[in-house]
Amino acid sequence: MAEQHGRSRSRLQALDAAHHLHPFTDSQxxxxxxxxxxxxxxxxxxxxxxxxxxxxxxxxxxxxNLGYGRExxxxxxxxxxxxxxxxxxxxxxxHPQATELAATLATLLPGDMQHLFFTxxxxxxxxxxxxxxxxxxxxxxxxxxxxxxxxxNAYHGSTLAGAALxxxxxxxxxxxxxxxxxxxxxxxxxxxEGQGRDEHEFGLERARQLERKxxxxxxxxxxxxxxxxxxxxxxxxxxxxxxxxxxxxICRQYDILLVVDEVICGFGRTGHWFASEYxxxxxxxxxxxxxxxxxxxxxxxVAVGGRVAAGLIGGGEFFHGFTYSGHPVACAVAxxxxxxxxxxxxxxxxxxxxxxxxxxxxxxxxEHPLVGETRGLGLVAALELVADRQSKRRFASxxxxxxxxxxHSFDLGLVMRAVGDTMIISPPLVITRAEIDELVGKARQxxxxxxxxxx
Length: 455
Ligand code: PLP
Known about the structure:
It holds the Pfam family Aminotran_3. Belongs to the class-III pyridoxal-phosphate-dependent aminotransferase family. About 45% of the residues lie in helices and about 15% in strands. The chain has helices at about 1-20, 25-35, 60, 70-85, 95-110, 120-140, 160-165, 170-175, 190-195, 200-215, 245-255, 275-280, 305-315, 330-345, 345-365, 400-410, 435-455, and strands at about 40, 45-50, 55, 115-120, 145-150, 180-185, 220-225, 255-260, 285-290, 300-305, 370-375, 380-385, 415-420, 420-425. The structure holds pyridoxal-5'-phosphate. Pyridoxal-5'-phosphate binds near residues 126, 263 and 264.
């Protein structure tokens, strides 16, 4: 049996090396090591081509919120494929699934967000944001309001506009990014950039960089500020409590639209349907994807608040849309996903039970000699690997401590992700207390092995 697994794995690895270019992957490094092949998922677990069971501590890419193998979602997709596998939303047409989903989302969203524009992904949401924001200001007779302010180390996707809005240096280095009229300020990353400084003051200072940037550019040129409530791919960066209220104040004072990217935070990750509730953000635009279908189908949506919706509705045709905007199968799966989340009180459970349980257990890793900080909210968490706990001195960057820890973790049967030397987790929202114990136990073992490897 093991031999059979090995043969099938080797064959796929050879084909993969010969024909497949992977996203976010150094191909040469991959070919040396051989691609990891995931074949099956059930609940919070994955199985690889060698038959190993692995706890998926990242819910795929922060998306498989209901876990793998949910019959309700599979049946919804199958029903919709038979009924109407495709139709579009262009040219005065809809299908019941898109309209029902828009109406359902409107009941879950914070503030006055009553309108939805569907896309096929988070990146497409952010491309849509750039076009929508600029079009909105043009409808208000202010076409010079074009500049969108984002943050260094933000992640808003991989399309041209998504990567430009994002603040990932290696992405900007490839392909001449960012685009004109997209600028960045510093992130509210206290552990990484505010060591030794009062957290509250640091949060205010980072938020006030927005005000300085607006004044530097001229408020009449600035269209919007965009941010993830908690930066995910940047390393699960939870801003100081002083940060978002100050950002809100500045956006209001200068009449700048507030765009919140909830592609990771949305759909219960933080113990709220949207993290905008937790931070009381009242955004003008809100991006969602990933958890909207628990990753079973590609789908994204931009929620639009009253003011922008009125501008768009009154502004003539918006020349924008995707063939797969609001794909009917994806919308059917999203409706089933939301129905299951409601029937099983998933968001409530994360808020009151599994979220606090995970955070308590995760915080106990803070006593490990390799850990300089733990942090988290709901079912997303991070820890910082350090060479010296007392001074919080980091490892030399060439050492790749995070990657060492990630590989140990995988070998132990847990997917943890490394962002530099920050280890992050974001498990399926259906994870049980017993599975959380397993996750944290394996993370601790991975830290022990990393210690043995590096110290
Ligand atoms: N926005 C955020 C906050 C994300 O984390 C991601 C993906 O990780 C995206 C946008 C891009 O989404 P997609 O990969 O679906 O295009």
